[in-house]
Specification:
By secondary structure, the chain is mostly beta strands. It has two helices and 44 strands. The radius of gyration is 35 Å and the shape is elongated.
Length: 513
Amino acid sequence: MKLFAAVCLLSAGVLSAQNVTISSVVAVGLGDASFSPGSEVYIYGSFPRNALPGDITMTVGDAIGTVRAVNSIGYVTAVIPFSAPLGLNALFLTYKGANTSAVGVLVKPYSPEFVTAQGAPVSDRGPVFPLANYYPLTHNDGNRTPVTPATPAIPGELLLATLTGLGPTDPPITANTTPGTFSPLATVPTMTLSGKSVNVTRQGNIAGLNEVDFVVPQDAPPNLDPLTLSIGGFISNTIMVPVGTQPDITQVLNGASFRSSGTVSAGSIVSIFGEKFGTGNNLSAFPATSVNGVSAVIGGFQAPIFALVAPVPQINVLVPTELPETGTVNLTVQSPSGASLPFPLTLAPAVPGIFFYTDPTLASRRNAVAVEANTAWLAMPTSMAAAMGLPQNCNALSAATLCGQPVHAGAYLQIYATGLGKATSNGTPTAPVLPSGTPAPANGSLLYTTVATPTVTIGGFDAPVLFSGIAPGYQGLYQVDVQIPLAIAPGSDVPLQIMMPGGVPDTATIAIQ
């Protein structure tokens, strides 16, 4: 029975003081034997699995250090006391009144080391060096997202560095210091990135580790940049920092006409041009507001994305309907490598733009995306339809077949555009608009009509407007139904113009026979 009880006690992890031994002591930063006052260390050996940090004390020289954690796989986490004498000292642990044998540790004034992200199996210090949860650099995003090639540092960004061995604090950390208190370092370190001095904004010790916050220089070269820290004449190990480049917005145009630079209207489609919008494409993203880690924010609202074409680079987005009709707002593009500088946009009640096709054989031709009513028959020259690979004799085809041919005077035409301004149910000015990311009912059960009616001319003649509003099943895409005036003369490039009250018109062409 006594033997059985002893076995049960051992299996429960109850060990005597004599079972506490030390096999090695390593610094948390690199797992080496570089120590200084305040350094966090791992002490490997044999320790009781049920021991609490308060059950074990550590002595370095004649100074008592802090034991922060006891791990069942064979190590404790501790902090070299700030009062530890410099030079070679004996380090030992005390458990239940019994001391382990001592090991020698060389305590230097400073031993700066970036805490590495990965450990390596080492036979004399346990199964694995336990650093998997530490990263030398993180973003200042509230989540401490690690700086990696997938989420690189950005010039001008504030980063948080985790190190050990940066020495004493001012005021000093004592036994009475509240746990978790951030205490500034007594000596301010300096840092260089690719040989350039960086601006250190904050530095200190918290819970045994050091944090140094710094700003990535604006002229930091992209790629992997070497980062080092120096304090009191001691230089840290070098880590390689992946530095990316933030997106850059160069132009914002009407998504249909590619005109009206920098002036947009709520509920319209715009095209954002620039640089460094990521590497992936998505041509059918709506109503997503983030594609491949790329997003656009206009006036504080996430913009639904229609398409991302990274090689151009170009992003087609919906200007959020929640924005006011007038004023100035900022646009920013966020990518995996950071956020662009704000790009100012001017809001207008309407910025009409007609969608158009370019003739493969005549680059100057801007043929409107306009079809004969209730068909997919584009009103374009037959030569252009042939160049685009479309059938030209639409009358012999079904109404749903995409084809191209000139349209007759007097026929009814559906014109597709964007930027025609506020659209509500039945065009009632006080009725709500469609929330961003919500298309109009595809079955047309509720039509969202523009509050203001556009003026449409074809060949210089007024074309009666029968409907102007959001195309059923879409958002940002407007449909204008008109009748082609009978007095119009035939032609391959008859001008078609749409203008909203008080606004700037947009013009394209159609073919009339």
